[in-house]
Amino acid sequence: MQLTDTALFRIYLQLPGGQTERISFTNPRITFFPASGKNKATIEYTPRLAEDGLYQLLVQAEDVTGNQSGDLDYKVNFEVINKKAISNVLNYPNPFSTSTQFVYTLTGSTTPDYFKIQIFTVGGRIVKEITQDDIGPLRIGTH
Questions:
Q1: Residue 103 CB partners (closer than 8 Å, separation 6+)
Q2: Could you tell me the residue range of the domain that residue 133 belongs to?
Q3: Taking the model in full, what pTM does it have?
């Protein structure tokens, strides 16, 4: 038998203050995809979280015969930062001679209008500028 409804799923969201709320499947930000050929059901949840802080998403589930989905509940901890910022900027390898990769995190609710990476020598001379056109479309998150 394949899982075709949400009755065997429970989703909880722990808020930054420690309060936990159950997320209802009537919430318009949840989409349930019933199991199909590979007998895999999927849930997509896209909340709007206005409060900055640490959250935890907890999912409990059973299969159609009543077996728990695992020995432990599925938990994901994450942090919401609504302030526009760039952080966790680093490159590797560092130092480099011919090539390097940049890692950074963009936060906020919208991407910046202008974005540029400048590479300097130790003496302060610009040796390369990488613009948004070089990078491609930006999105919020870690890159």
A1: 88, 89, 90, 91, 92, 142, 143
A2: 85-142
A3: 0.67
